[in-house]
Amino acid sequence: MKTVDQALLDAVVEILEEDCWNYTVFLKSFSIEPYENRDLVETIKKVFGEDVVMDNIRQIRKEDVRGIIDSALYYAGDVATGPSAASLASPEFHTAVGNVQGQVANILESATRVETFWFREGHPAYPVFWDFALVFTGETFVTILIGSSSD
């Protein structure tokens, strides 16, 4: 199954949370095998439970995915909250984000549809500063990539 390696996502989280100020990051990838009814709501409920409520479900262009992820991960925060400037500028961070983006690009090559949504209820984390949820659907896979940050 196609997925983003959780170890790569964890590396990004570790760097962003190092020397940060009142800032935590959540990054997870989930993969399931596609089934006959590819309804996005049913797919998300299959992964996150029947009680989740989604909103603003929409298809997006593959070209928009990199920008969505980068705008979240490179969020600078302000004087009271956020990742350290040194972490954001570090070669390790750029490499870690590049590794994640490389795996996402690989998934995009096989995806026939990309959608985004947000959780109205039942988010697995507590988003405050930024939040994204992306669903990549291909002939043989469904991958969900979720990211958020909070204080």
What can you see in these coordinates?
There is one protein chain. The protein is of the alpha+beta class and 151 residues long. The chain is 36% helix and 30% strand. The protein is built from 5 helices and 5 strands; from the N terminus they run H-E-H-E-H-H-H-E-E-E. It has a 5-stranded antiparallel beta sheet, with helices on both faces.
Q: What distinguishing features does this structure have?
A:
five-stranded antiparallel beta sheet, alpha+beta, 151 residues, 5 helices
Question: Which helices and strands occur, and which strands form pairs?
Answer:
Layout: H1 6-17, E1 24-32, H2 40-48, E2 53-59, H3 65-73, H4 85-89, H5 91-110, E3 111-121, E4 130-138, E5 142-150
Antiparallel strand pairs: 1-5, 2-3, 3-4, 4-5
Helix pairs in contact: 1-5, 3-5
- The residue fraction in helices comes out at 25-40%
- How many helices in DSSP terms? 5
Order of helices and strands: HEHEHHHEEE
Total beta-strand segments: 5
Which sequence of strands runs across the widest sheet? 1-5-4-3-2
The average pLDDT score comes to: 94
What is the molecular shape? globular
User: Biggest sheet: strands, sense, closure?
Assistant: 5 strands, antiparallel
Q: For the terminal residues, how far apart are their CA atoms?
A: 33 Å
Residue stretches low in confidence (pLDDT < 50, at least 5 long) are none
Proportion of β residues?
Answer: 25-35%
Task: Please compute the radius of gyration using only Cα atoms.
Answer: 15 Å
Q: Could you give a short description of this structure?
A:
The protein has 151 residues and is an alpha+beta fold. The protein has helices at 6-17, 40-48, 65-73, 85-89, 91-110, and strands at 24-32, 53-59, 111-121, 130-138, 142-150. It has a five-stranded antiparallel beta sheet with strand order 1-5-4-3-2, with helices on both faces.
